[in-house]
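Co-fold these.
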Amino acid sequence: MAAIEATQVSKRYGTLTALDRVDLTVAEGEIFGFLGPNGAGKSTMINIFLDFARPSEGQVEVFGLDSQAETVAARERMGVLPEGYDVYDRLTGRQHMRFAMESKDAEGDPMAILERVGIDEAADRQAGGYSKGMAQRLVLAMALVGEPDLLILDEPTTGLDPNGARAMREIIREENDRGATVFFSSHILEQVEAVCDRVGILNDGELVAIDTIEGLRASVGGGTKLVITTAGFEEGYLADLRGIEGVESAWIADAETGRVEVTCSNDAKLDVLVALDDRGVDVTNFRTEEPSLEDLFVEYTGGGD
Amino acid sequence: MAWRTIAKKDVREVTDSRTVTWGLAFLVFVFFVGGYVLPLNVDDPTTADLPTYMADAVGLLVPLFGLLLGYNAIVEERASGQMTLLLALPHSRLDVVVGKLVGRGAALVAALGGGILLAAALVVYPFGSLDPLALAGYLLATLLFGVAFLGIGIAISTLTASKQTATAGAFGVFFLFVVLWPQLPDILALVLEELGLADGGLPDWALFLHGLEPGMCYERVLEGFWADDPSGAAVGPDAPWYLGEWVALGLLGAWSSGPIAAGYLRFAGTDL
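Predicted complex below.
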């Protein structure tokens, strides 16, 4: 059974379409990265998983439970770090944990989890005085209560320093090793690239790609990127480059230094350089790169246009 | 029983708030003063004198504190994002509304019940007498009255995601029911007389309409069930049945449950 099974999920606010017929399956036991620029609809999708928002069309099942009709049963199996939350100012960290444990009917030592996320020293302080990063760790700790089968983390590294972000990735891996499915959203590529088994890229409410990272890389042409430093390149030439057989995409990476990037098959590399020469463009330097996820991201989310 | 968890947390939060504790303490204090002063002004004081003696204070303060406790119960958490945290845990929206009603209801009932019992004790000791049945009735009716306004407050809180709108709504209800409503009979009588539909008094249907307001229901319940000889247009011997105390009690019950039920349905049907 899939951990998450979304079928043709659409969400419209008036004339604005936040999600457009998204199909998504997250298998049990995988770490799934939900990637997309801000405003792409990631949080809307997660809010539908949690029944915070109702889809205009389509439906979502979590471990076979309807996310709307059986929302409480579905959420009993989840640990959630939502977006746009606020902690209870007057309750201490420990009281937050007790509340989460009571809510989930879970046994255990709240301090052990607070230690794991690194805020055990602040356990008896009111959460109203926590920094953003501490609040984020506290809510992560609440999500971990009761060893949930599915962790839903919406932009989990927001407000964390690099150390905190690394600790977050470790926790994600540990939870996954324990057997939990992890679904997390991010607009930060490194986060996703570092831990995910599979990635879905959401852009403008549409799921534009869904695959393993290797699979995504393979889907981009021959898997090569040309980074060319030029003099005299004009924007109009991009269309010409894209017209070359074997070229997937071309964009200006840095207009000031005249850096142009082209993803293409191996065979097309020379054709690209020849085409530039034909147009009187000086190639001052060039190198080839394996495409990073960033390039994929840029390509899929239209940043290269 | 998830609502219990929410109710417990809510009681802890509410009693941690200085504004709320002071407000509820003030409510108890008002009953204390009433119970202390009553025997000085009434011959042969008995606890059955309490309702009439406290009527003005109760009619003003109970709606005020009921609404104040209720109007931000949901919307405050919703606007700040605490509701997001709460509903990320396995609670239903019904758990949330019931938990809030029970939690805040407990705080209100404790203050109101404590105040009434304190006042009753002061009336009884050393010179007065206890009328247990009337006291129990007074206690129950007043608690129901309080819960009605708490329910209206929470209902307002479920209808909107904006704290300002909720504040305006609570203020509007208070103004309508507590300030404007007592003036309504005079206005109605004047209008009806102008139209030639009545002369001087109000017809029964107009009395019924005016009697729908929770405060009016509360008064009629007290008057009808426990006054020695009920009088007046509504509960007097000649009054029609639908102006009587049983209907008033039913209406008060409806005020305690109807608005909050409607509020829940609205809250359950909207995106967070």
